[in-house]
Amino acid sequence: MVMMTLALSAGSIAAIIVAVVLLVLLAIIFSVLPIRIWFRALVSGVKISMTRLIGMKWRGIKVIPLVDAYISAKKAGLDISIDELESHVLARGDVIKVVNALISAHSANMELTAETARAIDLAGRDVLNAVKVSVNPKVIETPAISAIAKDGIELRVKARVTVRANITRLIGGAGEDTIIARIGEGIVTTVGSSESHKDVLENPDAISKTVLSKGLDSGTAYEILSIDIADIDVGRNIGAQLQMDQAEADKRIAEAKAEERRAMAVALEQEMKAKTQEMRALVIEAESQVPKAMAEALQKGKLGVMDYYNMQNVMADTNMRNAIGGVEESSDIKKKDKK
Asked: Which of 49, 69, 111, 195 has the most CB atoms in a 10 Å sphere around its CB?
């Protein structure tokens, strides 16, 4: 009995060991071989060989998203190969977005090839969003754009632009910022050519017609369907403000010129005072030479003594008359001040 018990125990241990080894081998196999995703593709009606899946895994490709995208494409009836999807993944593309975009375009009867979709995705564009915008147009609202009419009144205009994505121009085409900039240019041109801001307020559809006639969507990834003026606000009177600024500038120029003339007048006055002082100095110098000249004339006999005395009498009489005249004049002035 003991021997039989020992034999049974040894057999049980061996069976347990074999079971553990089998479990470990199965875990290793399932971790190395993508059996689950292969089985999912098989039951979905998509044939992918195990060797291809193993090769994808060894090349560092995320097998599950790729196979799921391939299954979705085949179920939607798309003519696309696993090689195309694999090359797109290796090029750092988003295979899920590409397949979903192709499915959406196929459902909407849009012409979108797999090559175009992959090129759009690799160019950095959201191909799925582009297809959605192409099927369901989006509305772009511009910020308040300031424009000035000919009468000097500022108008602030907001517009809503309905656009549809153009798949053929999505690669290399300009985006929403270009659309908004061109719309702003059209608004400024239309308002600026109006004689009065009232004309714009009365006919805001003139802005839409003018902007649409310019073909602003050329070279962009969108097609402009309509432009609607959402709001128009009257702003400042820029013309009056400019006139006030011009008047202020003219005033400052006039003040500067007046100050310049005043400075020139002061300088001329100082110059005349300097010349007067110079003339006085010359006169004083000349007067100082008179006694010397008279002495020489007396010595040389050119001037007689009686002539000298007569000249002195005349000078004394003149000084007396000047003194009397000055006293009388000052007294008259004092009388007038008292009155």
From this structure: 69
How many CB atoms lie under 10 A from the CB of residue 216? 20
Rg (CA), the chain: 54
Tell me what pLDDT residue 118 has.
85
pTM of the full predicted structure? Answer: 0.52
C-alpha 48, offset from chain centre: 54
* Cα(226)–Cα(290) distance, integer angstroms: 107
For 280-303, how does the pLDDT look when each residue is reduced to its tens digit (9 = 90+)?
888 787 777 777 777 777 777 766
DSSP assigned state of 221: S
Quick count: other Cβ atoms within 10 Å of Cβ 293?
Answer: 12
Beta strands at 138-141 and 153-165: parallel, antiparallel or unpaired = antiparallel
- Confidence at residue 305, expressed as pLDDT on a 0 to 100 scale: 64
Q: Which of 40-44, 136-140, 202-206, 229-233 has the lowest mean pLDDT?
A: 40-44
Element (H, E) at 162: strand 153-165
Q: How far lies 117's CA from each of 75, 123, 228, 304, 322, in Å?
A: 18, 10, 32, 133, 118
CA distances from 207 to 159, 164, 238 (A): 10, 21, 21
